[in-house]
Every structure is written in C-alpha cells, then in structure tokens.
Amino acid sequence: MAVLLLAGFGLAGWGHGTVARTIGVVVVMLAVVYQQFCHRLVKAYAAEEKRREACADQPWLWRKEWSGPAIQSEDAKGLGMIWFFAVVWNGISLPAVYGVFTERHPDKAAYLVCLFPLVGLGLLATAVYKTAQRRKYGRTQFVPTELPGVIGGYLGGVIEVPARVVLEKDARVALHCVRRVVTGSGKNRRTVETVLWQREERIPPGKWLSVAGRTDIPVLFRIPAGSTPSDPESGDNEVLWRLTAEAETPGVDFKTQFNVPVFDTGEAMPEDVAGGPLLNAYREQEPAAGLDWAGAGIERRVDGYRFNARHLNGARLVFTLILVVMLGLLGVFWVNAVPWVAWVIVGIVAGVMLLMSGDLWWANYELQILGDEVVVRKPRQWGTREWRVSRAEVDAVRKEQSISIGQRFYFRLVLVGTAGADVQTPVAGESFQARKLRYQLRKRSEAGADTRDLLTALSGVPRFEIICAGHVPGPAVADTVAAEILAVIKGKPEKI
User: Fold this and answer.
1) Measuring CA to CA, how many Å separate 440 from each of 102, 294, 472?
2) Residue 122 has what pLDDT?
3) Which tens digit of pLDDT belongs to each residue from 27-72?
4) Residue 71, CB half-sphere, CA atoms under 13 Å: how many?
5) In this model, does residue 16 exceed pLDDT 70?
6) Cα 2 from chain centroid?
7) Are residues 143 and 219 in contact, defined by beta-carbon separation less than 8 angstroms?
8) What number is the average pLDDT over the span 64-88?
C-alpha cells in the first residue's frame, strides 16, 4: 500500500499533464480506501476472536451478525456486488465491441467480443431490478424467537419488512441447508453449491400481518434430527442455512434472504405437526385444498392431471431471447466470414439455449387413471409418447429436482414401480439401471458365470421409473401433488 501512496502522490504532484495528475489522485484515493478497509477488517477479526474466547461452546455467537436481537438481510451485500460486476463488465466489453465494429477489425475472431455485452446487459438489468426491490421494500430483518435454530427442534420468528407488501397470490417462505465448496484459484476459481435439505411453506395473504408502512412475515420451520449444522467459519467448504421469503406483488415482486444460524444444541423437541414444519396457526387450510394448482402449472381433470410450464413463462422467454440473439450473432459471423472457432463457441451456447427453452416450452405431461391402468403421455412435436402401467404396480411417486432459478427449485415427479425388474423382458419406462443389469446378466449367462448377485440386484430395482410431471415449483408443492397422485392411484379418495 505504501508503494501505491508514493506512486499516487508522485503522479499527482509531479506528473506531467492533467491525465497523469488525475490518475495520481485516483490512486491515492484507492490506497486510502484500501487502508480503511484493511483497518476495519483487522478490528472485526479481533472482535470475533474475543467472542470466540468468551463463547467457546456457543459457536452461533462468534459472528457479529448473529449476536444481535435481529439478523439483517443479505440483499444489500448481493446488490453491491451485482452493481460492481455490471459496471466493470460493461465498462470493458462495450468499448471493445464499439471498436470492433467501427474499425472493421481484420481479425474476424475479434467478433467473439459480441458475446460479452449480453452478459453485461443481463447483469445491469438484474442490478436495476434488485435496486427497485430495495427502494420499494427497504432493508428487511429477521427477528428470531430464539437463537440459534435447533436441529431436532425449530427455527421460528418474524421477518420484518419496513413497507406494506400487497400480495397477489400465496407467499413462499423457504429454508435451505446448502454446502458451498470453492475450488481453484484466480481465473479458475469455481463455487459449487449442493442443497443438503430444503423445505418450503406457502402462506396465505391473510397470515402476513400488514399494517401502515410495515409487514410482518411469520416463520416457523421444523428442522429434522441429523441435519448438518451451520459452519461459523467462512472458508472454501462451509455449510449455510438460508431463509428466504418471496411473493408476487403489483409491480416489483418481493424477495429477501437471510443467513441464519442452525446448530445441534442437544435441546431437541417433539414435532407439533406431523409431516410439516409450519404450525397450524399459520395455515389457513390443508395444503392440497389451498394449493394454487393453476399457478403451479397443474390442471386437475376428472380422470387425472395435466402438467405444463406456463408458470415459467419468464424463464422460457429469457432463454428464447438469448437463443434468438445467438442465432443473429451466427448470421453476423456468416456475413463477416468469422473463423470456425467462433462458430463452435456460439453454436454450443445456442445449442444449450435451444435445449433449455425447448424443455420449458414443451414440458407437457398428461397422467390419466383409466380402470386398472395408469397412462402417462408426453406430447411432442413429432408425436406423442405413451406409457401404460398397472395401478397395482405403482409403489411411489418420487420428486427429483429438475432446474433451479436463483433460490427457487423446481421438481419433476416420477412414478416408481414395485421392486423386481423383469429378468427376461423389458417393460415400458424401466430405468437404465435395469437395462444395464439385464445386459450384464445375459453376458454372464452366455459365459457360464455365476449370476446370483445380478439376480439379487435386479430384484431390488423398480420395475419402471416414468416421469409424469416436469417442473413443479417448490418442494412443498411437489410433496403435496405427489401424495395426492399416489392416493388417487391407490384408489383412496372417491374422486379427484
């Protein structure tokens, strides 16, 4: 830092020309800001060390943000980073694109820089939208009933919003346990997040306590025993518990996020509501009855269900727009005879966008219960694919994560057959594992080898695994829909 100060003072005092002096002033200012940042960082680290010594057996008190009566949202931190990257990215990429097109650069590979403003414009649009959210709803905070959230117990409290939130539909409050692993360094630095546990609850508008200029959002989650606790030390491999709340409102939608402490304190409590973390006091009606089926892309029929992805209109329009831009860029490459390397890179991006947008536009499924059969149909542009299985052979309806958009997770539903894949004859919808085991069984039989282990493995593989729904929003909705479908297939309710 001393070198920066000397260089800055040198340019500012003895530099030749206005440009040199301006650069010198900027360097000095950056050095001073960096010095203040380092000073604050050292003070914060020293204060944290004192808290560690004083509360060695209470790691949830080590972090300053967890030691107060309220936990502040992470929105401001993320907003600053988005603006920083948006400004830097656009400040570098836009002049480069302008230079390529105005000077008619002889190296056709230079037209690859056209890709970068697309990312920059996306960052800028996100920053503007996040800023509008912040101005509309202010800085939210989570006031817990007690800290920390207890594994085998509960995380409860109230999210306080310093603005009135007018809901158009049921709101969503979710708790996620995420393992975040950072690998590599420099340009090769990469962050991978894996969801270890998640739960989402839908809260009717009447349960959000709105008064003049303020909204209180109730929070109460049951945390299952055996969950992974929070990691109070930031590092390259840490576990985070994220509390999010979001809702569709007129104009800019509401969304906020918190990093909350969850630990095993040994104070496990009995579960008040079987199968759900949110107490009945926060629920207006049973989940299935209060579910917004149309908003989840589900149509209930007399003989079954129909699933679509209309609730993901925004996502599929964005992917389609990117695809159109990629195709337009390929047209520019054609006119300017750009080298094949650029074609390959843009072609790969266009192919990914084609697959993603196609999946969202045509993620339609039909599930019918006809007599003793369950019929699943997948309409496609080149014909409808159909699976027929016996109702008696359906053992479960399993949810699997399909895609995620931010902190919002979507799930596919899979009909799972009873255990015992057919040894000789393939059946409709059987898994790749069953086909692989049958192939290995045939090869071993031809060679006269022992096949008992393969026969045992086949007896434990489901007879079929058939996707019957594409992108159901949220784990709570997916669990509710899966439970109802299985109940209908098993013939428990009188009607759908």
Assistant:
1) 62, 45, 36
2) 75
3) 566 666 666 666 566 665 555 556 555 565 667 667 777 777 888 8
4) 27
5) no
6) 43
7) no
8) 77
